[in-house]
Amino acid sequence: MILAILVWMAFKIITDDDYDLAWTRIWPGLRITIEATAEIFAIALVIGLVFGMGQLSRNVVSRNVARTYVEFVRGIPILPLMFTLALVIVPQATNALNGRLDAWFGWEFKLSFQWRAVVTVALIYGAYMAEVFRGGIQSIPPGQVEAGRSLGLSRRQTMNSVVLPQAMRAMIPPLGNNFIAILKDTSLLSVLGVLEITQRARQFSASSFKFREGYFVSVFIYLVLVMALSLLLSVLERRMTRDLKGGR
Amino acid sequence: MISVRGLSKTFDRTIHAVRDLDLDVAEGEVVVIVGPSGSGKSTVLRCINLLEIPTEGTVVVDGADLTDPSTDIDKIRAEVGMVFQQFNLFPHLTVCQNITLAQRKVRGRSRQEAEEMAMAQLTRVGIPEKAEAYPRQLSGGQQQRVAIARSLAMEPKVMLFDEPTSALDPEMVKEVLDVMLELAAEGMTMVVVTHEMGFAKAAGDRLVFMDEGEIVETGMPDEVFSNPRHQRTRDFFDKILY
Fold first, then answer.
1. Cβ distance of A157 and B133 shorter than 8 Å
2. Which residues in A lie closer than 8 A to residue B90 (C-beta atoms)?
């Protein structure tokens, strides 16, 4: 069914001039969409690792900081946070800092709207990924840690050689799902005027009044991307869990 | 070899798992701890390598006081092997990798040395042909024997066994007990928590009966079985022996 729709869309793009025009206007946004997805995923991964481990730390302060961050960020929808960061926090920080930075280092702090949007989405997904890391590590039975420690391995060695390799396998499906979700949420970058697929579709539609063509094409691109990614992920998942199942 | 003095362990401030317990284990001695569930036997064992931190008291193993904060606990643990009820093999590693991991990371042995030691220990427990298998491919009895081999490869001075046969199907209990009997005969210092009275009789130098966090009675296994001095001991054996 989905395949049929995709084939029909592809057919339309090739044969219909209006669709063809929409396609040529919109698909250059693909590069920014993919770039932004990779940037957001990378930043969120680092944030997630830091705050995920932070939540499991023995240190009360880092545990509470991590916990607070995750709870706080998870409680805010992306768009309001994006407006706040891009239109309030960054400009004010820029104003407050730049006089001094310029005097001291001859350098000014500047952040493009694209980066402001990327950072916002990364902050949000960082909190989700912190939960993925925490859950992955906690899914390993305590007996594994006890066995490692009782053999004389240190906390760090046990974490690196025993817990993390097992937790990684448990984390691959949720991390993959987050990656796909990030790809789709890059469409939110359009509200700050970033020229990714959705923004290009909006511009094309608004200027030519060909709304159907414009939005159909953008949806088509997202669908193809997501389906390709899901396929890739399921292959990866199967490969990662194969040795655990032990080829019985 | 092991000297426990005034050991108490309290969980959540209200549950007294172990109360003011003294226990000494000499080099080469096999001490078997029995008692009803919840009597604190496992907790005592877990305090001996600090998997549980004692609320009070001291635990001295091979001259080192574990409750002293300046003691390097990882170093002591390398000298004290532990075998768990649930085996706790590392599922993402092969049998051979399970056995070589700590040897290489803690003892600093080369890959070749560690693998030779692994094969020697696997031969000792009777399954050298399983070296390249993953834990899931093994039966419970085989897994537990790998766990024993993994501990022995560290050449520990003491071996602790926490109900090593309780999670096994009945027909696999013997293969594990045979390995333990052999180990005892070779003069290994062992502390064994178990419900296998046959093992206690065959291999135990001393039997310790625990109830409600205290040692009720201790003596030669045969004596305690046939002629328990305390009512609580008698009640326990009445319930489990037939």
1. no
2. 144, 147-148, 162, 166
Residue A247 lies in a domain: no
pTM of this structure? 0.81
Q: Would residue A135 count as lying in a domain?
A: yes
In which domain, by residue range, is A125 found? 2-241
CA A83 to chain CA centroid, Å, is 18
CB contact under 8 A, B74 and A153: yes
**The total number of structural domains that make up chain A:** 1
A90-138, pLDDT tens digit by residue? Answer: 888 888 887 777 777 767 777 888 898 999 999 999 999 999 999 999 9
Cβ-based neighbour number of residue B146 at 10 Å? 26
pLDDT tens track for B92-139: 999 999 999 999 999 999 999 999 999 999 999 999 999 999 999 999
Asked if residue A107 belongs to a domain, the reply is yes
ipTM of the complex in this document: 0.90
Looking at the domain assignment, is residue A248 inside a domain? no
Residue A120: CATH number of its domain: 1.10.3720.10
Task: Label each residue of B177-231 as H, E or C.
Answer: HHHHHHHHHCCCEEEEECCCHHHHHHHCCEEEEEECCEEEEEECHHHHHHCCCCH
